[in-house]
Amino acid sequence: MDSPEKVPEQTETSGAEDGFNLFMIVVSFLNAFALYVAVTGSGYGPAYLMIFSLFGLFVSHIVVLIWACQVEARLWPVFKYSLMINGIVFIAMGFAMNGPAAQAENDTTGGEAANTISASIDSVNYMHDWSVKYKLTDLRSNQAIGGSIVSFLAGPGGKNCCISLPKQWQAGMKVKVDWQEADKTHTKPDKYQRELEIPLYQQPGDLYVLFHPGQEVELVVSRVEPGYPAWPGKIKKDAMDACIERLSEKECKRNLPKYLSNSQEQIAADFRRYCQPENIKPDGDSMGWDKKGCAEMREYCIKEMGVDKRMCEINYEED
Question: What residues form the membrane-spanning segments (predicted)?
Answer without folding.
Answer: 20-39, 45-66, 78-97
